[in-house]
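Section 5: illustrative case.
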């Protein structure tokens, strides 16, 4: 147990065990590590065994209806744990807490604690309140909170790659999206604290950091913009790889591309969610760019970094989507030749502009069929991209031992593709030059190149 030497008052946790279950995006995974840091400082002890827990927090996602349905399922299972340990406290934190607020304490699966993404510093108090028979609820959003100085407790540790949240919130209000409502307005974290966190990771053996935010390229703190921040982090060491996610196409500037191209440890991979290939649809989505503009940015990326991988997010069946618009999404995919894509069926979210003004009118069978076409096409494109890599050389950063064979390691290329190769004398955290000799649908197979 960590002692809080600054205070003589009893710590809320007093050795009680905390378990946190995390759903949703990387931002949520990062927040869980901040929550654990805050709670440990109050005398709670983190456990990865739910049966042992005195407090269970579920860090939730609201992005699509099925994400929330999963959480409701989980909440009904909590009854079993409560039966075994009547003093157990259960809390919902994260995006669903922000969206549903007090409603989550009601009913037979009602929870004891509800905390939105900006109120984690208040969690110890909320737990105290719940512990004395009340309900601990705080869903206030903040225009300033970035948890800047809190050192996250690294939970999912391979000891090589880590995520660093550089901003929170989103101001883009894409018409289908719930994030601006659950995460509040955009704010950037002090660059000095970001660089200090990255440097400390590097000194502790980490070799890759991913700078995280809903729209990282609108990062701005005083004079420091995103390209400046990338440079500051990449200058820590040429042995530290730098990645970032996610970029909004409207903000992917030439200055950013120029900075990336000038530093070989900034990875050659850009996640550039298109959502749709049709300008008319992009307008309904409030994405603030056209198909042509998007393709112009893709061309710029290729001009600055011919070997840069481009990946994307796509939504099938948003309001009013015609067959023609769907075809344009397929043609955009072919034109760009995405390395990888996350693909979703539109799910209407309460409170969004689309839910209020744009009918969810594409029949579910049509959405499903279109999504299926998108997935099949992406599988072909990913396979083509993997086949193109056969015979090429890459430097990979070793992340772990292969799941299938323990005499093999796996690592990633700068383009973020996984390569499996014979271990030799290498260890996790090494850089190794490999030649790709073959591929499966998801993985490249390689062999080490000896100079
Ligand atoms: N900020 C990031 C994405 C965050 S959400 C960005 O703008 O790129 C991740 C992805 O979920 C989005 O890119 C979008 O493709 C998808 N998504 C968001 N809202 C959705 C909804 N209502 N239905 C289906 N997919 C959605
Ligand atoms: Fe949602 Fe759009 Fe913000 Fe991404 S940019 S989080 S899709 S509103
Ligand atoms: Fe989900 Fe919230 Fe992330 S809605 S995708 S957990 S920002």
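Designed sequence:
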């Amino acid at each position: 147990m960590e002692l809080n030497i600054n205070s003589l008052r009893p710590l809320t946790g007093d050795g009680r065990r905390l378990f946190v279950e995390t759903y949703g995006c990387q931002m949520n995974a990062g927040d869980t590590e901040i929550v654990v840091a805050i709670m440990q400082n109050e005398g709670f002890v983190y456990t990865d065994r739910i049966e042992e827990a005195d407090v269970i927090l579920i860090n939730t996602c609201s992005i699509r209806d099925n994400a929330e349905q999963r959480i409701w399922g989980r909440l009904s299972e909590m009854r079993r744990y409560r039966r075994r340990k009547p003093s157990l406290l259960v809390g919902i934190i994260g995006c669903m807490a922000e969206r549903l607020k007090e409603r989550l304490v009601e009913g037979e699966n009602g929870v004891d604690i509800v905390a939105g993404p900006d109120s984690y510093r208040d969690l110890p108090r909320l737990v105290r309140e719940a512990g004395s028979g009340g309900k601990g609820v705080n869903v206030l959003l903040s225009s300033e909170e970035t948890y800047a100085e809190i050192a996250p407790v690294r939970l999912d540790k391979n000891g090589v790659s880590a995520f660093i949240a550089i901003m929170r919130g989103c101001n883009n209000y894409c018409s289908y999206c719930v994030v601006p409502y659950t995460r509040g307005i955009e704010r950037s974290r002090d660059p000095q604290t970001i660089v200090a966190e990255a440097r400390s990771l590097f000194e502790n053996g980490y070799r890759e950091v991913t700078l995280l935010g809903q729209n990282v390229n609108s990062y701005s703190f005083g004079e420091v913009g995103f390209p400046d921040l990338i440079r500051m982090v990449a200058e820590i060491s040429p042995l530290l790889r730098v990645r970032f996610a996610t970029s909004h196409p409207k903000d992917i500037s030439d200055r950013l591309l120029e900075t990336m191209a000038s530093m070989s440890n900034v990875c050659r991979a850009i996640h550039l969610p298109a959502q749709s290939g049709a300008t008319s649809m992009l307008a309904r989505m409030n994405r603030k760019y056209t198909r042509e503009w998007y393709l112009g940015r893709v061309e710029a990326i290729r001009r600055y970094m011919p070997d840069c991988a481009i990946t994307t997010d796509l939504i099938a069946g948003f309001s009013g989507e015609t067959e023609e618009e769907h075809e344009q999404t397929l043609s955009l995919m072919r034109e760009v030749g995405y390395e990888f894509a996350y693909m979703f069926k539109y799910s209407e979210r309460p409170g969004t502009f689309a839910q209020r003004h744009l009918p969810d009118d594409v029949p579910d069978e049509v959405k499903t069929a279109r999504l299926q076409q998108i997935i099949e096409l992406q599988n072909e494109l990913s396979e083509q991209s993997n086949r193109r890599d056969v015979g090429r050389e890459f430097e990979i950063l070793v992340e772990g031992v292969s799941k299938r064979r323990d005499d093999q390691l796996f690592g990633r290329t700068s383009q973020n593709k996984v390569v499996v190769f014979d271990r030799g004398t290498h260890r996790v955290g090494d850089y190794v030059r490999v030649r790709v000799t073959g591929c499966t649908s998801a993985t490249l197979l390689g062999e080490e190149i000896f100079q």
